[in-house]
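ligand=beta-D-fructofuranose
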Amino acid sequence: MNQVDLLQKAYKKVEDNKENIQLDPYRLHFHLMPPTGLLNDPNGLIHYKGTYHVFYQWNPFQTAHGSKFWGHYTSRDLIHWQEQQPALVPNEWYEKDGCYSGSAIEANGELVLFYTGNVKHGEDKRETYQCMAVSSDGLKFEKKGPVLFLPEEYTSHFRDPKVWKREDVWYAVVGAQNLNKEGVVALFSSTNLKEWNHIGILAGSKLNGLTDLGYMWECPDFFKLGEKDVLLVSPQGVEAKGHLYQNEFQSGYFIGKWKVGTTEYLHGEFTELDRGFDFYAPQTFEDERGRRIMIGWMGITDEQEVYQPTIEKGWVHALTIPRELVLEGEKLIQKPVTELKQLRQEDGIKYNVKLENEEKSWEKLAGVVSELKIRFEHLEAETIELNIRSHLKLTYNQDQNLFTLQRKRFKDGKVESRSCELPKLEELYIYLDTSSVEIFINGGSEVFTARFFADPKDEEFAVNVKGQVHLFIEKWNLVSR
Ligand code: FRU
């Protein structure tokens, strides 16, 4: 189908589903979602000529994966978003099965996209083309076709180019699999963006002290933060180990030092970015204020995906709120961008309560679209549990130094949990939207992200302490974006 017909077909799908979607109480209020169909990875994040651009993997036709478009939102302030015409539509031979993930840069005043053209032959065979598209207004894109070709060191699991400039040279990292079926990151350089030179493998599943970190690394991102070079990757095929790597696929980072222009990248351990259930394929960009901002897909391709209750309303998945990344030692800290404070409806409501071996609940405290800041003082308790909207349970076990998030499984309502080690609980900063939660612990040193589907009217918040605590709670209702 040609571009115009494909676009018409997508618009019709959006139109036909509008009413159905408007009736959905789980439609989010301050997160980016697809107008209909399925959304996955954030793509092409950029602050271009004063406007923030967020593109995303989009299947307009089904709430399932398929031949992806690049949907497009713009904003002046990271809060109010405007839906734009899809930037990429998969109508050319080299992308017939999807304009897969990629990135954006500004070059000679133009907004340039790099993405993967995906061509499938049956279930297992595929071709991959790293393509370029250019725009002078940031809204309409002209495709330039494939520019970066698959070197013979990799299988055709080779995708998601992330391009950046360092010391006047363009570089690209591409998510890849080597011929031994190990996940790696391939590194390229270019002086003109059209011809790319393969430098080699920057990092990989069994390199640099790693024993085995999966069979494929998707969505790499590589950037300088302070004096360090940070590599984000989303590895597939990592085995669960204790509380680690519990999701089907992971997203995490390495901190290291890159000898610019070479494959020499000495890095430390792989650390998961998010400890919750729904977080994958994050991407970052630097804005004009010099902040490194990350947005992730608040979802994941797993067995549960098909059981999300929004599917019957014709849509599925969303993006996370924008989070600023800050380096503290060898750890990445995530902070909700300060702009989000504009969402607050009124002065916060404050509660301050001392509890000892007791349970206390507030019928309306949690809210449905809200922000909660909870400070814990004089915490001496075997466990402290917070129940949110009768659906989420956050538990801190002080003896075991363990923080746990529980929710009800989409498939059958059974309780499932994710945990992380936490030596001390000082503060929780919680963003609640109609069907999502993002929990920033102790200033963002650990983060839990999850979708959940509670009774839309339930706003209860309850605390149960085995021991004692002095709680300072501040709550704001938030407006829709
Ligand atoms: C990650 C991913 C990418 C790919 C895209 C396709 O979720 O699998 O590797 O480009 O999704 O939608």
